[in-house]
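A.,

Following up on our hallway conversation. Structure tokens first:
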């Protein structure tokens, strides 16, 4: 056969032609220029990222008749034979099929002889992690003290399987996966050289399917050119390589947003009827959700998005439908489903279950919002949680949906029997289930007894950080007047005051206050004067629980009754 595939035809012949491995290229060029080439190297990385090509380039630079040089001539017999893989002094060994100790003993015998023609004898051992332990042991001494004018290059996709004794005798270079933009740029160059008319959408599909491997991308491009000819068709390209169009993925995510379970399941049925690979579609949907998360957090023009320009506008519109919290939850669900489908006898069932979780995930309220008593979200808050918040009490904790039982018991445990810092007394009737922020003109000076707004501030802060919300527990009083909010702490609560005085925590406290009070405020965190302060007896654990708005909201929401844990334990013993 006279035809040469694109992956072989356009293999890099100089360091400047290597795509995406600039750090390794520069290091090797400096070593050649400074005459500091080591006797053994390890090239590790994923498939198709340039390990073998770099090994051949290094051999060519060292054995070129015009060298050693970082720019081999490419015309001498050594350069031509190395590029064709036919040089007698450059041996490429496949360790996957020559993995025993006998093959390594033969290599040790061969390495003792000087090169037959070239300056150095180079041994390139591909997939070196496949060697047996006996073979590795036989190779150790040779790698540590190789004969003069010999060089070993060990290429592997699983460097962690190499013994530490082997790694300590070599210089290790890690080859990274290529970016989407790097692969796309190389595909455009090759299409120009091959006189192939290729729209960006078709090449974008090839670059996405390659998943960081340039060799895979070139092989896919060869396949697409064979199917489409010199003018690539985007629809046919996506069908051939199994990449789902963004329009279809967008329709699926819009159905999820609308809570349309029927449409979601019908789309899965359509894919199965067409013979599509559900595992591949699951991977595409997971990648799209990841891109939505990036678009929502970093913007649709972020370089982290590995999509074409036309798809960025679609992602921007879809990202506006969801909150960051929803997208991170979707991402976690799809990653788990993708892993489960690999080992399932019924992968379709796993996939359908995962999509049903996406549809119903928006109906679940975060536990912090449910217990804080802030109230049900409104449609203006955005996200599926605000659109479809149910009246029934449900919340999620660690990925598990919890439904209320009938008349549970709230047990109160006091882990520290000694006196505790006093908490500002709160009347249970003031802890409402819905704390509405008053208008700016309604904000009036407040003292320690005004707990309705303080409870709302604490709940808002608790949503951001449970630890930060707990810092308001030791409050002895607070005041809001003339755009200034003051929080007073006793000496026992000095630790909380010190934390809230830091710049980062103070900004979060300020944002919570402005959200509840409806106006811009300045925050002051101070210690209360000890003189003249009325001392009170420390509250019991039950009193503290009964006066805590979060516990009270929990009791009302789940129709609980109070029980003392000591009484319950005594009854169990009896």
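Then the amino acids I'd put at each of the 574 positions:
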């Amino acid at each position: 056969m006279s035809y040469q595939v694109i992956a072989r035809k356009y293999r890099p012949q100089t360091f400047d032609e290597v795509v995406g491995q600039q750090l390794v290229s520069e290091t090797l060029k400096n070593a050649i220029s400074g005459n500091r080439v080591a006797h053994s190297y390890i090239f590790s990385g994923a498939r198709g990222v340039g390990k073998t090509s770099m090994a051949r380039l290094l051999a060519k630079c060292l054995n070129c008749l015009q060298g050693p040089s970082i720019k081999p001539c490419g015309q001498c017999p050594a350069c031509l034979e190395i590029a064709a893989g036919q040089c007698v002094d450059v041996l490429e060994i496949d360790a996957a099929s020559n993995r025993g100790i006998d093959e390594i003993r033969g290599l040790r015998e061969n390495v003792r002889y000087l090169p037959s023609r070239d300056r150095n004898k180079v041994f390139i051992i591909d997939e070196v992690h496949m060697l047996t332990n006996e073979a590795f042991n036989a190779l150790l001494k040779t790698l540590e003290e190789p004969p003069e004018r010999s060089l070993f290059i060990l290429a592997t996709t699983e460097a962690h399987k190499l013994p530490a004794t082997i790694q300590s005798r070599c210089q290790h270079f890690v080859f990274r996966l290529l970016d989407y933009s790097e692969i796309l740029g190389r595909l455009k160059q090759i299409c120009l050289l091959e006189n192939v008319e290729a729209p960006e959408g078709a090449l974008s599909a090839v670059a996405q399917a390659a998943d960081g491997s340039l060799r895979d991308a070139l092989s896919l491009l060869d396949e697409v050119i064979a199917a489409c000819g010199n003018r690539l068709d985007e629809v046919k390209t996506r069908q051939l390589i199994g990449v789902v169009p963004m329009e279809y993925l967008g329709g699926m995510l819009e159905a999820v947003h609308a809570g349309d379970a029927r449409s979601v399941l019908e789309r899965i049925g359509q894919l199965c009827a067409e013979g599509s690979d559900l595992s591949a579609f699951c991977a595409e949907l997971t990648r799209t959700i990841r891109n939505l998360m990036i678009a929502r957090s970093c913007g649709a023009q972020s370089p982290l998005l590995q999509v074409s320009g036309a798809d960025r506008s679609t992602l921007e519109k879809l990202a506006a439908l969801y909150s960051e919290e929803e997208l991170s939850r979707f991402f976690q669900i799809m990653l788990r489903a993708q892993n489960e489908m690999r080992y399932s006898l019924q992968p379709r069932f796993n996939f359908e279950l995962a999509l049903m979780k996406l549809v119903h995930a928006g109906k679940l309220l975060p536990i912090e919002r449910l217990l804080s008593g802030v109230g049900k979200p409104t449609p203006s808050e955005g996200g599926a949680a605000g659109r479809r918040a149910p009246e029934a009490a449900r919340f999620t904790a660690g990925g598990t949906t919890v439904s209320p039982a009938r008349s549970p018991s709230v047990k109160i445990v006091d882990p520290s029997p000694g006196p505790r810092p006093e908490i500002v007394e709160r009347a249970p009737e003031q802890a409402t289930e819905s704390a509405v922020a008053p208008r700016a003109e309604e904000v009036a000076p407040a003292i320690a007894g005004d707990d309705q707004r303080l409870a709302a501030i604490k709940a808002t802060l608790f949503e951001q950080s449970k630890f930060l919300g707990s810092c308001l527990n030791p409050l002895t009083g607070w005041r809001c007047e003339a755009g200034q909010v003051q929080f007073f702490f006793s000496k026992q609560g000095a630790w909380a005051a010190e934390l809230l005085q830091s710049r980062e925590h103070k900004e979060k406290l300020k944002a919570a206050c402005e959200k509840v009070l409806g106006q811009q405020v300045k925050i002051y965190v101070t210690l209360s004067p000890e003189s003249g302060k009325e001392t009170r007896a420390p509250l019991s654990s039950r009193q503290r629980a009964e006066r805590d708005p979060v516990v009270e909201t929990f009791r009302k929401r789940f129709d609980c009754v109070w029980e003392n844990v000591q009484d319950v334990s005594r009854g169990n013993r009896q």
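Residues 374-449, 531-535 have pLDDT under 50 and may be disordered. Curious whether your intuition agrees with the design.

B.
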